[in-house]
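re the bet — no i am not wrong, look at it urself. input seq straight from the record:
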Amino acid sequence: MTEFKIVTTNDELEAALNIRRNVFINEMGVPENIELDEFDTPDSLCKHILVLYNKKAVGTARCNLISDKKLKIQRFCFLPEYRKSGLGKLLLEFIETTFSSEGYNYFFLEAKFSVQQFYEKCGYKTVSDIFIEANVPHIKMEKTI
């Protein structure tokens, strides 16, 4: 059973941050001072989403509420054994459905270049050249709903 939760407790936030530590810091070598920032607090303008699969925290994303219509999807990741399972697509659908009902209609992200095709399959369009962030090639992608 899969559950998508908007983080509301410190324990849920810590579970999301632990997934990001595993993926971005331990697996990809992103420095902690780049990965974790001022938006990773319960009172920031960001909403954190936690993905639970059979009650285990397996994925997360951070939604930066840029304006009343624009939302930036950040820190989208899953533990390795849950990638290519269809959960990523479901997480994007959850984010889009949840926040479009609150008036957001423009979603964008800076994706690792290596996962560009995943986001394209989910309806996102590439709108930039490749750029480097945290020593990893990225591209900006967007979707209007």
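see?? Residues 2-144 form a domain with the Aminopeptidase fold (CATH 3.40.630.30). told u. also The chain has a mean pLDDT of 94. so pay up
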